[in-house]
Amino acid sequence: MLDDTDLLILDELSKNSRITMKELGEKVHLTGQATSARVAKLEDNGVIEGYTIQVNQDKLGYVTHAFITIMTEGIYHQPYLSFLKTQEPYVIHNYKISGDGCYLLECKFPSNAELDQFLENLNKHVNYKLSIVINK
């Protein structure tokens, strides 16, 4: 069971996973050594699964942000999943969902023309509903 200090540690690490244990300890009112032990315990228990970076897709030139609800015709999804593997530069997340579709695909594209080409190729495998992000 997590206590309030563990939750504070997780909150601070989610803001800056590169923070030193000493700095983190100061924020959660523990010594650096005690903080390090807490973080190690959170890792060992699988609460912290890993550390990552957040990439600014706009600065990489991927300015068109789309959510695509995928509707497959049957239970055989492999053609769609194989197609996605060839489109990795565009795909941020592919969530299997319940509700209006089978998957919710989050993508970024450098242009509307590349989005259009992606959708033409996608439509060979599945039907879809497109939503474009206007603003975060």
Structural commentary:
- Keywords: DNA-binding, Transcription, Transcription regulation.
- Pfam families: AsnC_trans_reg, HTH_24.
- It comes from Sporosarcina soli.
- Strands 2-3-1-4 form a four-stranded antiparallel β-sheet.
- Helix 1 crosses helix 2 and helix 2 packs across helix 3.
- It folds into two domains: 4-44, Arc Repressor Mutant, subunit A (Orthogonal Bundle); 58-132, Lrp/AsnC effector binding domain/regulation of amino acid metabolism (RAM) domain (Alpha-Beta Plaits, 2-Layer Sandwich), CATH 3.30.70.920.
- The two termini are 34 Å apart.
- The model has no long low-confidence stretch (mean pLDDT 94).
- By secondary structure, it is an alpha+beta fold.
- It contains five helices and four strands, in the order H-H-H-E-H-E-E-H-E.
- The longest helix is centred in the first third of the chain and has 13 residues, at 32-44.
Strand order of the largest sheet: 2-3-1-4
List how many beta strands DSSP finds. Answer: 4
Strand content: 15-25%
The backbone outline, from C-alpha atoms, is elongated
What share of the residues lie within helices? 25-40%
Largest sheet: 4 strands, antiparallel
Please tell me the CATH architecture of the largest domain by its name: 2-Layer Sandwich
Annotated CATH topology of the largest domain: Alpha-Beta Plaits
Number of helices: 5
Structural class: alpha+beta
User: How many angstroms does the end-to-end distance come to?
Assistant: 34 Å
Nearest-integer average pLDDT: 94
State the fourth-level CATH superfamily of the largest domain. Answer: Lrp/AsnC effector binding domain/regulation of amino acid metabolism (RAM) domain
Runs in which pLDDT lies below 50 for 5 or more consecutive residues are none
Radius of gyration: 20 Å
The ordered string of helix (H) and strand (E) elements is HHHEHEEHE
CATH top level of the largest domain?
A: Alpha Beta
**Number of spatially distinct domains:** 2
Keywords: DNA-binding, Transcription, Transcription regulation
Domain HTH asnC-type: 2-63
Pfam families: AsnC_trans_reg, HTH_24
InterPro entries: AsnC-type_HTH_dom (IPR000485), Dimeric_a/b-barrel (IPR011008), Tscrpt_reg_AsnC-like (IPR019888), Tscrpt_reg_AsnC/Lrp_C (IPR019887), WH-like_DNA-bd_sf (IPR036388), WH_DNA-bd_sf (IPR036390)
